[in-house]
Fold:
Amino acid sequence: MGSTTLSKLGKIIVLTAFFFLIYVIASASITLLDVVVGLAASSVVAVLVAEILVKSPPSKLIDLRRWGWYILYALHYFTVIEWRAHIDVIRRILHPKMPINPGIVRVPYHVVTDYATVLIANSITNTPGTVVVEVDESRKYYYVHWIDVISTKEEICYEKISKTFEKYAKRIFD
Amino acid sequence: MLVQDPYSVLKLAALIIGGVLTVVGALCDLIGAIGLLRFPNYFVRLHAATVATIGGAVYPLFGVAIMSLACDFLGVARWFISAISFLTAIIITLTAPTGSHAVARAAHKAGVPVHPKACDLLEEDRKRGVVK
Structure:
């Protein structure tokens, strides 16, 4: 068996497990019927989408350390980063003088895989106050609409907007 | 209130946390709507819309997921409600920014005004020809 076949099989198995997990969570019960139907459906879907969905080697998907960083990131993101950004934008909305200073700035990124790029872009857009408008993949820049432009310097924008996200994204996907 | 056993303390905590998240979500929705009306242009309004999607949809769904676990009168249905709310929250977190990216990029390409602005480096780079 060649290495490509092996990696393809690995992708399918990992994806089947992942889809089956979602199926079990969504149906919230484990009976024999659930297991049989769930496994059948998820394996069919996995075979269909494996080559499109998974571009990196499947060993990354079962690396527990990456999952640990991912869960840590989710906790940090939802409990601290989001609240801070929400309170900042809510203050700007309700303030009588509406203190905004919007503009589109360039933010460099240093990750390699597409997944990490998307994770950082999604995180930037999901925090109120910053929206990614365009990605330049060849020069590795995000163009970010920022509600309060402190500086147009790339280092300061990177420091303020995407440094935390990139630190986690590198550990999760790269 | 006299607390009988640790289980009921956990249930009370879940109800309070879930309730707080849901109420905060409703407030976020209201403030997001006010922001949509007050902010001066399309791109700044996107920030107010983000307050309403994450603060006003994802957090209440997490709240419902926590709260329904403590509601014994729902019977088996509470596991369904909790699991579906949790999954929906995660799916919104993944898909909402994708839509924002698409509309923001399309609006900027179509020439929707960015005024008032401190700077617009994307437009400058488009004029210089480094970004298509």
Notes: Helices of chain B lie at 6-38, 42-70, 77-109, 121-128.
